[in-house]
Design a protein that fits this description.
By secondary structure, the protein is an all-alpha fold. It has one domain. Helices cover about 80% and strands about 0% of the residues. The protein is built from four helices and no strands. It has helices at about 5-45, 50-60, 65-80, 90-95. Helix 1 (about 5-45) crosses helix 3. It starts with a helix and ends with a helix.
Length: about 100
């Protein structure tokens, strides 16, 4: 393999890596939101449907002023949900 071919392959791999890095940075908020949403739906108290859980999460996160604050709020909710098996009705109201 010549130096030109190696440089071309290395350049293509570098370009692909930069593209992936940019895509992950752009979609990270959506990914975090989706994971927290699914976790909240799974751990919601009995009688709470998935649509209500989605609306509650949207209200919690939508109250934040900017994207960085929304991500921080999502991470706090995620940390809290990590520690429990199921939300009680009181915890649900406290969100």
């Amino acid at each position: 393999m010549t130096i030109k071919k190696r440089a071309l392959i290395l350049s293509a791999l570098l370009a692909f890596a930069l593209f992936l890095y940019g895509a992950v940075g752009y979609y990270s908020h959506d990914l975090i939101y989706h994971v927290v949403e699914q976790s909240l739906i799974q751990k919601a108290p009995a009688g709470v449907d998935s649509q209500e859980a989605r609306l509650r999460l949207e209200a919690l996160v939508g109250a934040e002023p900017d994207k960085k604050a929304r991500v921080q709020r999502l991470l706090k909710i995620s940390e809290y949900l990590e520690k429990i098996q199921r939300l009680t009705p009181e915890e649900w109201d406290g969100l």
